[in-house]
Amino acid sequence: MEFIALLSSGKGTWGQVIGLINRGQWDKIIIITSDFFRSTISKFNFDKELEIIAVDFDKSIEDTIKQIRENLKDKIQGTEVALSIASGKGKEHMALISALLQLPVGIKFVILTKEGIIKL
């Protein structure tokens, strides 16, 4: 299963996403972020390969959805993805979820807890 995460603003939210990346057994890891945060992500050392997609979240929500959808359309092999929206803002969440549903692909929300990864 592919793991897709929004990595954006929000104090303490990057730890949740990084934990999911490092502890999950994913077929592919795709990070949706802005150009600003893209350079920050490259400073982390991951033992897994990441695909980073930079999106301009300052555009209209319709344009943002289109940009995400176009970047994801050939990258998802299955019918369902694991999704983390622990990081980011409402508009970013709505754009990402809408783009995924328009592909179409099913969504399993995932969180990291003390007990491990939980799929909701």
Describe the structure.
With 120 residues, the protein is of the alpha/beta class. It has a single domain, classed as 3-Layer(aba) Sandwich (Rossmann fold), CATH 3.40.50. The chain contains four helices and six strands. A six-stranded mixed β-sheet has the order 3-2-1-4-5-6. α2 links the parallel β2 and β3. α3 crosses α4. 28% of the residues are buried. The model has no long low-confidence stretch (mean pLDDT 91).
Layout: helices, strands, pairs:
Blueprint: E1 2-6, H1 13-23, E2 28-33, H2 35-41, E3 51-54, H3 61-72, E4 80-84, H4 90-102, E5 106-113, E6 116-119
Parallel strand pairs: 1-2, 1-4, 2-3, 4-5
Antiparallel strand pairs: 5-6
Poorly predicted runs: none
How large is the share of residues in beta strands?
Answer: 25-35%
Output the CATH class name. Answer: Alpha Beta
Mean pLDDT, to the nearest integer, reads 91
The number of helical segments is 4
Overall spatial form: globular
Q: What helical percentage do the residues reach?
A: 25-40%
| CATH topology label | Rossmann fold
For the largest beta-sheet, the strand count, sense and barrel status come to: 6 strands, mixed
CATH architecture: 3-Layer(aba) Sandwich
Given the helix and strand composition, which structural class is it? Answer: alpha/beta
Rounded to the nearest angstrom, the radius of gyration is 13 Å
Supply database-style keywords.
120 residues; alpha/beta; Rossmann fold; six-stranded mixed β-sheet; 4 helices; 6 strands; 36% helix; 27% strand
Please sum up the structure shown.
With 120 residues, the chain is an alpha/beta fold.
